[in-house]
Structure to design on (663 residues):
């Protein structure tokens, strides 16, 4: 597993190359920041992706009554609030002794969660990634083929919106509101799905399945039309981590932890989510606020891993829904017996998951348990608990301890973007090796960096979305630490070189 | 799935931001206060969210006028007004859709021009997690609310 270019080699340093760490400009910006360090011969010696993180939220939660937390944690993220809502609820199920929650609560939560994952995946594919995928990066051949795909699917925008809308309606029907829902509570849920809402959703679910199948086909075609690009762009070997059901099936809501090594062999399986601290450790590095999780058994150098759709599809043994399972088999076959390591394969895997989500939703909508039955369970009180869920971007850990006064005394969160921190750095380094040419940061390089980062669908924007923030900043430094070039891509799409004021540097 | 919703109020005020991040709360706070101030007969819907997303294009359907409200780090204090036009900007590829891009989604979806949309950008200063809105931002919000009330009363 290559981790070269994270830190310049000692001999390069001895020849006058300086190590430079640049603090992110602000802790509240929802943008990525990349620094590249050149040697005296203008070769890339170091590449680092800095992502602003929200660890402060853990302090924010301490001292709050535990029953407030599942609603409060939704403010962590405007992209996947439902994932935080449910992960916190699962952790506090243990506090209130709801082991397990009732069948009704389990099914309504699953409906909420699979709706959230489905709509998040739809947004990413149809809108966030579509300009990359449908109009190509720089290849004329690619562009021609992509135009053909686009012509075959002229209503992509419409389907993307309506898939999202369907998911939002699922969330409203289960959480009570489109925003700041409170449907899931410690011990279960606080409402059934109404017959009217179920009927509305049942009316449209078959259409959603058809559109999800089309999306998988588009993703497959993209790979088939340009395998050289899709197999090599941002490709590197990594371990994989995800939840799986006890029988090895894909499960996005609950299960046991499984990890595979870079060759696809199982490292551990059947591990309880409550024991995550025995499996995973987080390394701190001086140049970024975001931690670097790794598997303890392998150590920090070899133990970093990927999470999310690419990991989940290859970590599970099967998908427990027929249409998506057929597509998973096609996906796995693409690897010709080897784990698929290509960053762009995230898109294909994401669409297979979206199809699975809609299949699961269809089954749950037909289940009478969502309309009636016990909502809340309880049992012997516990001091704390861990809630783990497969959020759209990957495995999400919520860990809390609660005092006798019902106030939270400890909170630890590991979000998917943190799990993928090292992997995203590797992807950016791979792109920098291939596309950085000389001393100028080109828009083409910036675009390729963005494509690599975006495949992981990171929550760079979990923070604020105030007008005027910069989504991406790339800085090029010379061997003496001097600024050579800096480019900024604004929220409005403006691309500009900026050799003005730079953040303070520590050497 | 039909994209045609039930009948809606002709006016929509849509604010977005995160209540837990200091001045980023200006959008939702503006919605909360306008809703409290609103005369019962005013034909207006109020919506708030963390950020604009593509499905919000459906919330524009059937409107005569739309007012978007967000905190801004770059506009002059206390607030800035912009009459918006649909545009396929780079926010299509980020998690933070611009109102112009949302209007473009509306056009892509419906094949017709979106309603008249105005952006009310309220100057913010501090966006720290867990921080309350700053005194300066609240002063800017008060000025913006006065303008927004007039906007609601126009043509009523």
């Amino acid at each position: 597993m290559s981790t070269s270019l994270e830190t310049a080699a000692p001999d390069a340093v001895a020849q006058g190359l300086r190590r430079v760490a640049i603090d992110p400009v602000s802790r509240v910006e929802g943008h990525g920041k990349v620094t590249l360090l050149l040697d005296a011969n203008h070769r890339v010696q170091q590449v680092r992706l800095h992502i602003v993180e929200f660890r402060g939220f853990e302090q924010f939660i301490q001292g709050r009554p535990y029953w407030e937390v599942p609603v409060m944690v939704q403010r962590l993220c405007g992209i996947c609030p439902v994932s935080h809502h449910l992960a916190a609820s699962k952790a506090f199920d243990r506090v209130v002794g709801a082991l397990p929650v009732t069948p009704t609560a389990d099914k309504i939560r699953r409906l909420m969660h699979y709706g959230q994952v489905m709509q998040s995946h739809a947004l990413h594919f149809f809108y966030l990634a579509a300009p990359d995928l449908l109009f190509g990066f720089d290849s004329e051949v690619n562009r021609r083929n992509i135009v053909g795909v686009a012509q075959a699917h002229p209503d992509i925008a419409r389907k993307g919106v309506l898939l999202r809308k369907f998911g939002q309606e699922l969330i409203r029907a289960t959480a009570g509101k489109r925003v700041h829902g409170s449907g899931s509570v410690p011990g279960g849920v606080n409402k059934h799905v109404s017959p009217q809402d179920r009927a509305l959703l049942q009316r449209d679910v078959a259409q959603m399945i058809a559109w999800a199948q089309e999306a998988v086909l588009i993703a497959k075609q993209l790979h088939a039309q340009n395998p050289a690009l899709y197999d090599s762009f941002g490709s590197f070997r990594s371990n994989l981590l995800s939840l799986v059901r006890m029988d090895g099936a894909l499960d996005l809501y609950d299960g046991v932890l499984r990890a595979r090594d870079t060759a696809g062999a199982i490292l551990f399986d059947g591990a309880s989510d409550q024991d995550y601290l025995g499996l995973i450790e987080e390394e701190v590095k001086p140049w970024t606020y975001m931690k670097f999780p790794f598997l303890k058994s392998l150590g920090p150098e070899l133990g970093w891993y990927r999470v999310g759709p690419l990991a989940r599809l290859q970590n599970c043994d099967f998908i427990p829904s027929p249409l998506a399972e057929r597509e998973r088999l096609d996906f796995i076959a693409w690897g010709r017996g080897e784990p698929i390591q290509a960053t762009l394969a995230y898109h294909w895997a994401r669409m297979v998951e979206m199809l699975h989500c809609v299949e699961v939703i269809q089954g749950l909508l037909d289940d009478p348990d969502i309309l009636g039955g016990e909502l809340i369970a309880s049992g012997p009180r516990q001091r704390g608990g861990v809630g783990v869920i497969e959020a759209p971007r990957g495995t999400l850990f919520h860990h809390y301890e609660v005092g006798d006064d019902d106030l939270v005394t400890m909170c630890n969160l590991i979000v998917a973007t943190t799990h993928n921190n090292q992997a995203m750095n590797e992807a950016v380094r791979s792109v920098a090796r291939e596309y950085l040419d000389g001393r100028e940061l080109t828009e083409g390089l910036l675009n390729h960096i963005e494509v690599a980062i975006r495949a992981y669908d990171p929550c760079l924007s979990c923070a604020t979305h105030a007008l005027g923030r910069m989504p991406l900043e790339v800085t090029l430094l010379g061997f003496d630490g001097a600024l050579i070039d800096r480019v900024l891509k604004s929220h409005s799409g403006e691309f500009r070189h900026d050799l003005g004021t730079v953040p303070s540097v520590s050497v | 799935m039909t994209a045609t919703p039930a009948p809606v109020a002709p006016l929509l005020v849509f604010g977005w931001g995160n209540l837990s991040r200091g001045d980023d709360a200006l959008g939702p706070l503006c919605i909360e206060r306008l809703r409290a101030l609103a005369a019962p007969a005013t034909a207006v819907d109020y919506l708030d969210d963390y950020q604009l997303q593509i499905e919000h294009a459906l919330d524009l359907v059937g409107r005569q006028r739309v007012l978007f409200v967000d905190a801004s780090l770059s506009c002059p204090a206390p607030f800035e007004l912009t009459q918006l036009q649909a545009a396929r900007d780079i926010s299509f590829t980020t998690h933070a859709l611009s109102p112009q891009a949302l209007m473009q989604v509306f056009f892509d979806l419906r094949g017709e021009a979106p309603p008249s949309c105005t952006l009310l950008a309220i100057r913010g200063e501090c966006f720290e997690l867990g921080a309350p809105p700053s005194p300066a931002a609240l002063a800017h919000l008060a000025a913006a609310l006065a303008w927004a009330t007039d906007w609601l009363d126009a043509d009523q």
Observations:
- The first strand of chain A starts at residue 21 and ends at 22.
- Chain A touches chain B through 56 residues (CB under 8 Å).
- Residues 471-506 of chain A form one domain.
- Residues 158 and 379 of chain A are 47 Å apart (CA to CA).
